[in-house]
Amino acid sequence: MASAGPDADGERRIGADAAGVAVLGACAAWPLITAAVRGGRPEGMLLAVLAVTAGYAAGRIGGALLPVAAPCAGALAGVGLTVTVPHLAPGPQITAPLGHAGATTAMLALSAGAACCAAWAASARAVRFALCLPAAGVVVAAAVLGSVSGCVAGAAVLLCSLAVGRVRRRGAALAGLAVVASGVTGLIWAVADGAVPEGVAASLEGRLTAHRVGLWRDALGMVREHAWLGVGPGRFGELSTASGQSPSADGKPHSAPLQLAAEQGVVGVVLLGVAFGWLLYALWRSPRGTPVVLSAGVSLTVLAVVAAVGNALSFTAVSVGGGVLAGLATSRPFTEDVGRRDARPRG
C-alpha cells in the first residue's frame, strides 16, 4: 500500500490536469463558436483563458521549485502591482461605480491568500509566524490605499486561513466555498430579475448603485432573448440601454456570470461554473497540506464573489494572479519527492 500511494496520487493529479485542459479548451472554443454565429470580438475571452492558463503553469512550476518563497514573492508582486499600476490602485476614477475598485479588491485578496499559503508551507513554527506578517501587511496596505473592500477581503482571507489550521477534511470545506460562490451568483441574478424583497433590493441597489443594477437587468434581458448563443462576445455595450446612457461605461455589465450569459448564452455561464468547479476539484486532489489548499480556496472564492458583482476578471493581472495562486496550491514540491526517495530502505 505504501508503494501504491505515490502512484495513486500521481493518477489523481493527472486526472485533474486532464479535466483542466478540457475545461479551459472548451472555454476558449465556445466564444469562437458564438462569435462565428452572432458576430462580436472573442479576443477578450481568449486573453482571459490564456492569462489563467499561463498563471497556473507558472504557479505549478514555482510551487514545485520554491514552495515557500514562490507564494511569498507572489504576494509581494500582487501588492506591488496594486500600488504601482494606476488602473488598479484606488483613486478618483472609481468614485462612481465600476471596475477598478473590484480589481484592487481581487488583487489584495489574492495577495493575502498567497502570503497565507507561504506561511502554511513553512515547516518551522517560527518561520510560519514570521510569514503571517506579510498577510497582515496586505490588510494594512489596503487600508493605506483607501480600499475598504480590499481591507475587508484581505482580513477575511487571513482570518479564514488561521481558522483552517485545524481542519483535516478539505472536501467539506471546499464544498462550502462552492456553495458561497453559487449563492452570491444566485443573489445577483435575483437582483437583476427583481425577485428579491423591495427592502432588500433598495439596500443592495444603494450599495451597488442603480447604474450597475440597470446593467445587470439589460444583461438578463439579453439572456431571455438569446438564451443559447447569446448576443456575441463583446457586444453587450452595443445593445445595452444602461451602458449607452453613462459616459463612463466600458461596455460591460460588471458581473462575470451575467456577462457570459448575455454574450455567450447559457453554455457560457455553465462553462464559467465548471471552470470554478474544476479549480476546487484540483485543490481537493492537491498533494499540498490542507491549510495551504483551503487558504488558496478561500482567496479564489473571494475572487469569484468580487467577479460576480464587478469587473475584476477584465483585468489581465487579476486573471494571471488567480491562475498563479491555483497553481501554487496544487503543485507538488520536488523536496517531497527527494524526501520519499531518501526514506526508502536501501540494499
UniProtKB/TrEMBL annotation:
Organism for this UniProt entry: Streptomyces atrovirens
Transmembrane parts of this sequence: 18-37, 44-62, 68-89, 101-123, 135-160, 172-192, 265-284, 291-309
Domain of life, source organism: Bacteria
Molecular functions per Gene Ontology: ligase activity
Official protein name in the record: O-antigen ligase family protein
InterPro entries: O-antigen_ligase-rel_domated, WaaL-like
Domain O-antigen ligase-related, residue spans: 140-272
Compartment annotation: Membrane
Alphabetic keyword roster: Ligase, Membrane, Transmembrane, Transmembrane helix
Topology in the lipid bilayer: Multi-pass membrane protein
